[in-house]
Amino acid sequence: MLVLLGPPFAGSDEDYSRLARATGLLPYDLRAKLRPGGWGVVRAIADRAAAEKLAAELVQLGYRAAAVPPDVAQDPGRKIVELSRLDFGDQLSLHLRGREMPIDYRALLTIVQGEARIADLMARSRSSASFRAVSPSAAEMESFRDAMTTSQFESFLVADLHFVTVPWVARIDSRHFEFTRLGVATGTRQGDLAGVTRMILERCDVLVDTHAKTSSVGSFVEQRGPKPMSAPGAPAPSLRDEPTDERLDGYSRLIGEAERLTRRLRRGGAVSSLAPRPTD
Questions:
Q1: DSSP β-bridge partners for residue 41
Q2: Residue 232's pLDDT is what?
Q3: pTM of the model as a whole
């Protein structure tokens, strides 16, 4: 189990001292794991009861914390479905592949934004062919590895919409989404994605997570390696048989589940204030 702690978290010296007393970890280690404004892994604990106990203790201290099963990162039931466009009306209309789905604005849980990196299979094929019939030197191999890190990956911005009502995730892929239908045309994918996000936030009171590159949650996903074979899961409206960024996908799923488990805390249902309580 992963004990996660998330926003609002100021990251003051007193925060780290208080958490050190509660977890038995050094403040230095906690600073590396937990950063202001985002979700981080406090501890990974095999025993579920012990993880839930620690998370509950952190909540009692005034923090927003949850014990999340690590398998959520690779859960085949939490499919990521690409959106072609959105419409804003009395409800939020999701346009999927050949289907339109209206969802109440209040069902939106959180938005996870990040940069996806997927292998450029065409580039990889070309580079591999160039070395197939020769015995490259050490210098040539070094140049080949450098080329792989730049030309063999495609990078693009995405925004994942997580909902309270369904387990699957609706993704705005900046390469394909119809921004102009919403009157968004900034000239850059980053600007277009930011424009649509602002339109959503004007209608929904949710947090936007932009910490995929720096969060210890993402580092945990990276350490787990590739996902297992697919298994039957909850139905999603549309699936894509394309390369994916497993690190970003796993990160997004974990953040979505952490937000789901702690939604009552953000809404004020369990603690009157999420500001840490003063110590005696």
A1: 4
A2: 45
A3: 0.81
